[in-house]
Amino acid sequence: MNRRLLTHLLATLLLGSASLLALPVHASEETADNLIKRLFTEVLDSLKTDKSIHTGDPSRIVALVDAKIMPNVNFQRMTASAVGPAWRQATPEQRKRLQDEFKILLVRTYAGALTQVSDQTIDVKPLRAAPNDKETVVRTEVKGRGDPIQLDYRLEKTSGEGAGWKIYNLNVMGVWLVETYRSQFAQEINGKGIDGLIASLSTRNKANAGR
Description:
The structure is a single chain. By secondary structure, the chain is α+β, with helices and mostly antiparallel strands. The chain has a domain at 3-119 and 182-209: Arc Repressor Mutant, subunit A (Orthogonal Bundle). The protein has seven helices and five strands. Strand 2 (135-143) and strand 3 (149-158) form a beta hairpin. The protein is globular.
């Protein structure tokens, strides 16, 4: 897989979620496929109107993720799935550190790609889900220059405060994001434990921040 293309598409997911809360749509009533379609179509306008995002300002992107994106992603589930069985043995403090470092890793890894997303369109495939399903996969094709790219999303239906569909994994050209990180994290955990993984993520994030 072309790494640059992968980062571009992941950045599209992140930025596509940016203006969700600004719209008068009740999240608990919106279908999963409509959510994905709306998030994606907003990305180009966001890029054009927010110059600080367009130039890759790290502080602006982190602030935007905290305010706009995280409410639309089940990031605890995403982190727990990436960490794997060791998550159950982690303390509350370790879990918090893992979520914090994993979020920083994703944001900083793909921040630079935000400046290069410009002219893609999305074709959302018909949703194969029953009305009462609590989990679903929204399958899409991203079209732009070159061949169409498969970009699929796993979502779950949540209840209570902030109810609605939440993204917890995505698939780019047959590769699921969480599973990719799980194999990397497992090596760190097997060799150095949970604290070793946290330290490794922290070191990696500091190195990315210095670039």
